[in-house]
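Hi,

Apologies if this is the wrong queue. I'm a grad student, and the batch job for SDR family NAD(P)-dependent oxidoreductase from Chitinophaga oryziterrae produced an output file that my downstream script rejects. I'm not sure whether the problem is my script or the file. Here is the sequence I used:
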Amino acid sequence: MKSIKGKTVLITGASSGIGKAFAFEAAKKGANLILTARSSQQLNDIATRITRQYNNKVQVIVADLSHKEDIAKFNGVKTDLLVNNAGIGKWANFLDEASYEEMLELNINALVKLTQLVLPGMLERGEGGVINIASTGAFQPCPYVAVYCASKAFVLSFSEALYGEYYHRGVTVTAVCPGNTATNFQVAAKADTKGMSVDTAEYVAQKGLEAFFKGKSYVITGRVNYLQSFLPRLLPRKSMINVVSGMMKKRVATN
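Support response: The file is valid. Your script probably expects a header line. Output copied below for reference.
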């Protein structure tokens, strides 16, 4: 797919951050939108702004994708491009969190299920695609961010595998791997990112769509992030674990 003008783009986690940036970037390129998140007010505010600015059709579906019953709201929804952006993370000692069920439901299960729902229609039409938001944390084990980064490693592997299955049938699956991004994620995840390089959500959305249009299976956004992603390929795995552990231990309150 080389253009989304006149196409329908479904974006999860669209009420803020990278999801919101994807909504405006897709609208700028002429797409009609289906926006979903938990916040009705934020979604409707974004929908109003996009309609006024670009005159695109925008549908809002309020849903909590960590709940299986809410995913049923998307049965029968037709979309040409799905952007699986919804996700949560925590920077903490593994045992400091009582449960990771919501994180795994949202970061993995909801992403897989929504992809299953939209792929048949895309294959029938012979075009379409999925953009899955992964992370630079997908490239190595991350002590103190263990479950989040492992979930994003799943997203990266899953995306590349589906790319291999469906690219020759006209459907592109692209994993977007941003590093530190200026969103509300840091607050919710209790992430200490002081002194780290940071990209804007708008930059991530632009580069993500660029990679998708070029038919790439994945993209790492940001030059610094791209260079850092090569380190796990150069060091022994145990050495890489020690490097990340030493770095993250300073940024997480440990017991």
